[in-house]
Structures
1.
Amino acid sequence: MDRNVKYLVLSVITLVILIFFVATTEFDRMLSSFTSLRVSFLMPAIGIYFLSLLFRTLRWKMLLSNFQGISPYNLFQAVCIGYMVNNILPMRIGEFVRAYFLGTKHNISKTTVLVTVFVERILDAVVLIGFLLVIISLNAQTLLTGLTQQYLTLGFSILIGVFLIMFVLMVYSAHNPVLIKKTTTVLTILAPAKLNDKLIDFSDLVESGLTAVKSPKSLLLLFLASLPVWISEITVFCIIGYAMGFMQFHDFNYVELFSSMTLVTSLANLVSSIPSAPGGVGIFELTAREVVVFNTGGSIDRSVGSAFALLVHGILIIPVTILGQLLLWSNNLSLRKLVAVNRD
C-alpha cells in the first residue's frame, strides 16, 4: 500500500475514534473533575515515568550485550529521541530513528539495532499479556462476563495471539538461524538480482540482533528486566488515579487500585502499540477510559475517565517529547533530517 494511502486510512480511523471519544464526553463534567486533582502528585508521576525509561535503557543494553563500548547515555538519548518522534509522527517511525541514531553514534549496523528494538517491543507485549492473564485469573468471573457483554473479546484475543506468535517466531529464529537463511534464499529468488547481496547481509544482521534471546537464561533475565519497566509505568497510572480520587471507587484498597491500573496500563499499551497516530492519540485515550469505566462498574463515568486518560497520556508523552527534542538539538540533528534518512 502506498505511504500516502496508509496515512489517509490511518487519519480517517483516528478521526473516527476521536469523534467518538469527544461525543461520549461531557466536557463540563470532565473539566470539573480536574478541580479536585491533587496537583502535587504530577511531578512524582513524571519522575517515575523517566525512571521507567532508565529501566528500559538498561534492558536495551542487555539486548546489545554482544556490542562492546556502547554508552548508556547514548542509549538513553536514543530511547528519548525515539519516543519523541513516535509522539510527533505516525506509524512508529521513532523506532527507525532510534536505531539510526544509535547506529550512527557507535558505528554499528542500524539493521541489527532495529532488530533489538523489535525484540524489545515483543518482550513488552508478552509481559503485558502476562499481567493481563494474572489480573483476569484473579477476577475471572467479573472480568470475563463484563468483557463478553461489553467488549470486543475476539479483537483482543487476536491481538494477544499475534504478539504470542511473534514471540515464538522470534525465539525459534534465534535458535534456528537456518530459518532466517531459508527465508532470505526465497527472497533472493523473488527479488531483483542487484538486491541479493544486500538480502544476504540483512539475514546476518538479523541473526546478530537476535543473539540476546538465544539463551534461556538471557531470555529469563530480559523478562525480569522488563518487570521494573512496566511496574514503574503502572505506578504512574496509580499515582494519577490516586490524585483524582479513584481510591474511593476501589474501597480505599491500594491493592485493588494497583490491580485496576495494571489492567488499564496493559490494555491501553497493547492496543496503542499497533502502528497508529502520533503517540497513539485517540486509541490510547479511548481504551484507557473504557477500561477505567468498566473496571469500576460504571462508578467512574466516561467524562471523568476521559479526564484521567488525557492526563495520564499527557504525562507519558509531553515531558519525554520535550526532552527528546532538546537531546536532538544537543546532537546538532533535526527531526526533518532523521525522517528523511529513514525514508531513504
2.
Amino acid sequence: MCNSFRSLLRHAGLLLCLWPGLAAQAGSDNLVGRYFADLRSFHAQFVQTVVDSNGEQVQDSKGEVWIEKPGRFRWDYRTPYRQLIVADGKRLWTWDEDLEQATVKTIDEALSSTPAMLLSGFRPLSEVMTWKPLENEDSMQWFSLSPRQADAAVESVRMAFAGGNLSIIEVVDDFGNRTRIVFSDTRRNQPVDPGLFELKLPPGTDIIGAEEP
C-alpha cells in the first residue's frame, strides 16, 4: 500500500501541476499546449500498473480519479485494495480501509520529495523539465518529458493522447520502476461535486498527523 501511495502522489501531483506549466511553455499550435491551456477539471477511470527494474509486475490497481485545479484531487483505488487519496488544496489525506487508518499531511509536506515540487508552478516548467513530441504509437500521439535536475526522483515521463484526450501517463523513477496509468471514460471541464474533496472517515478511524492545515 505504501508503494501505491508514493506512486500515486507522484502522478497526482504531476497532473495537477502540468496544467499551468505546459500551457505557458507550449505553443498554441501544439496538442499539449492546447489541451492543458483550458483544462479546469479531469475525471476518468484508471488502471495503474507498476513494473520493477527487473521487469516484474509488482502492482495492478484500478479505480477512479477526479482532479480540479487549483490543488484538489481524489484518487479512489478500488482493487485490489480500497484506498482513498484526497487533497483539498491545503491538506492531503490517505485512507486505508484494511488498516482502518488515515494519514494527513500538508500538501507541501506530502509532495516534498516528488516531481510535483518541480512542476508546482513556482518556476516555469522549462526551467525544470525539457519536453518534446515522439513518434506516434498505436494511433496515439506521444510526448516525452525529462527533468533537468540530475537528482530528480523521476527519470522520464511520457504522455499519450488519443482523439485529443489524455490517455496514458508513464513514469520511470530513479530506481528503474515503470508506472503506467491508463485512463478511460475521460471527461474534462465538467462540473465536479466539491464534496469529493472532503474525506469522510468511518467512526473509529485512527488519524496520523495534524488535521489543521
